[in-house]
Q: What sequence folds into this?
């Protein structure tokens, strides 16, 4: 999957889906890759559909405490990409966040409804 987006879009997969679900650990990617992945997911989600991904609660804060400066900057930039997407989606759709403290580690699912 981490190959070029165009390769995936040119595959025999359907071009749009009602629901896209991801458990990719965005915090581990470069912000540019997160932007690319979220853009791909948007193209794969039909209007009226939804895209859901999750983030573990507290992971970003823990990394900010113990990581080197470069990693801290990357994590903060990834958070900004996700925040930007939330704001963008809210203009024409809905953003829902659901926390699960029963999950180990606790997580929040973020759903974009287009």
A:
């Amino acid at each position: 999957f981490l190959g070029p987006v165009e390769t995936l879009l040119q595959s025999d997969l359907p071009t749009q889906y009602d629901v896209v679900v991801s458990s990719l650990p965005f915090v581990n990617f470069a912000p540019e890759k997160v932007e690319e992945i979220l853009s791909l997911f948007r193209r794969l989600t039909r209007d009226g559909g939804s895209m859901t991904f999750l983030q573990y609660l507290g992971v970003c804060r823990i990394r900010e405490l113990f990581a080197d400066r470069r990693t801290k900057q990357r994590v903060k930039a990834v958070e900004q990409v996700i925040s930007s997407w939330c704001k963008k989606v809210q203009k024409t759709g809905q953003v829902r966040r659901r926390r699960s403290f029963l999950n180990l580690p606790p997580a929040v699912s973020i759903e974009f409804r287009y």
About this structure: The radius of gyration is 15 Å.
